[in-house]
Amino acid sequence: MLERIELEAFLILAEELHFGRTAERLHVTTGRISQTIRKLERRVGGPLFERNSRKVTLTALGEHLRDDLRPAYDQIAAGLAQAVETTRGVRIKGVVRVGFSGAWCGNLLVKAADLFRVRHPDSVVEIQEIQLLDPLGRMRAGEVDLQLTEFPIVEPDIVQGPLMFAEPRGLLVPAGHPFAAKDSVSMEDLADTTLVTIASEHIPEYWMDYYFPRRTPSGRPIPQGPATRFWPEVLVHVSMGVGVSTVAMRAQDFHSRPGLAFVPLHDAPPIDYGFLWPRTGLNPVASTYLDIVHELATPIR
């Protein structure tokens, strides 16, 4: 029989494909995760993961084991949650509408929604992508109850909740750009290239300054390139050699393609992600869903 640490370490690593993030979610050391996975591999008699210096992937055996274990694990978790609700006399009903920016944010919301629906079958979760063109418009129009997005957001009618997680910041550059050959670049290097930005009257100026600065930390001007309205436009401009763009390094897991390279910014602060909600407050359904996202999210590094 599997020990709990073996089960959770395997399933979380199968999801994250990253030993460090798995260790953080389980609040143990990376060495403990490695030791646990090796022990499990000895037990099943074969490798569950392929590891190298760049990435971790599931083997065919690992995929089969994940697909066998995941439903049972979720069912156990849901059963415990239902038991707690029965004891407390709680039954959540209603609809929660959730927005996101960034595919990794969307993945977390969908995963939380799956668990939420198991625990609260009388409730509905509606998830929608929020476009860069108008990042706060749907919330202000009452079309979303919660939104997982990049901070900072400092607005009088919107609550910026606690941080959920943080991602290292980098540059998206053309594959043939001199920066692509470097292990990392500096914020000062932005003065030596052209920055592809975003154009929208609905984006707060302080947010633009944070993600698309006009000057380096030492005060050197950063050449401003095309102002786009949608993320696919950024990818096109960069791949065609028009300029570079700031980006979360996690984006390389979702947007890698020929003609693009992702380079870490070694002196830039990470990109913080958290929830927003109207200052008028959260309904009970949204609050319960938010608790589940907290349960599943990778802790802040």
TrEMBL record:
Pfam family, one: LysR_substrate
One of the record's GO cellular component terms: protein-DNA complex
HTH lysR-type domain span: 1-59
SUPFAM superfamilies per record: Periplasmic binding protein-like II, Winged helix' DNA-binding domain
Coiled coil region boundaries: none
Keyword DNA-binding set for record: yes
InterPro entries reported in the protein's UniProt record: LysR_HTH_N, LysR_subst-bd, WH-like_DNA-bd_sf, WH_DNA-bd_sf
Entry keywords, A to Z: DNA-binding, Transcription, Transcription regulation
Keyword check for Transcription: yes
Gene Ontology molecular functions: DNA binding; DNA-binding transcription factor activity
Family the entry assigns: Belongs to the LysR transcriptional regulatory family.
UniProt-recorded name of the protein: LysR family transcriptional regulator
Species: Streptomyces gardneri
Lineage of producing organism: Bacteria, Bacillati, Actinomycetota, Actinomycetes, Kitasatosporales
